[in-house]
Design goal:
By secondary structure, the chain is of the alpha/beta class. It has six helices and seven strands. It has a seven-stranded mixed sheet. Helix 4 links the parallel strand 4 and strand 5. Helix 3 packs parallel to helix 6. The N and C termini lie far apart (about 40 Å).
Length: about 180
């Protein structure tokens, strides 16, 4: 992935047009993740999700997806649901985010997420834009972009690919690679 300095050099040099195709994650490893709260759904029930509260318990995988109930988004959600026990064993939680309305996501949280992890609605795209996850070619949608956020609130890893097949395994690998806190004495 391109660093912020390299991206800035491309833009300053007038080379932004060749990069206009796929979006590049603006949040580099080590940068602070934007804190957010959002209305989310888990098992069909809505609640207020807070990234800060989730980070107080351990690392968080924040994954953005274009549209609930589309084939690839359903595949990805199902894969995260199947792996949720592995994330939990590593002390990590997962939250999906899209621009879908909360009623759509409440149904999706049961059907595709199997009531195993929450999905948050960001109809205003504030969170999506804050994580630079807006799909450049279709700005009504989030791009398929996943982040691992360390408990200190900094980006530990990110992966962007419209193909949903590798997101879960890449996120599990990144969570496994995080430094473990020292056991209390």
């Amino acid at each position: 992935m391109l660093s912020a300095a390299v991206r800035a050099a491309f833009v300053a040099g007038g080379l932004a047009l060749p990069l206009a195709g796929p979006a590049f994650a603006a949040l580099d490893v080590g940068e602070p993740a934007p804190r957010f709260t959002a209305t989310a759904a888990l098992g069909g029930k809505t609640f207020r999700y807070s990234l800060a509260d989730a980070l107080a318990k351990g690392p968080v995988v924040v994954y953005f997806f274009p549209a609930a109930d589309s084939a690839d988004c359903s595949i990805e959600a199902h894969a995260f649901a199947e792996a949720i026990d592995e994330f939990a064993a590593l002390g990590a939680s997962v939250i999906g985010v899209s621009a879908d309305d909360i009623d759509t996501l409440a149904r999706f949280s049961v059907k595709s997420c199997q009531s195993r992890f929450p999905v948050a609605s960001d109809a205003s795209k504030t969170v999506i834009e804050g994580f630079d996850a807006l799909m450049q070619t279709r700005p009504d949608f989030a791009n398929r972009l996943s982040y691992v956020i360390a408990p200190d609130g900094r980006i530990a890893y990110y992966y962007q690919n419209l193909n949903p097949d590798k997101h879960v395994q890449r996120m599990l690998g990144a969570v496994r690679a995080l430094p473990r806190p020292a056991p209390p004495r």
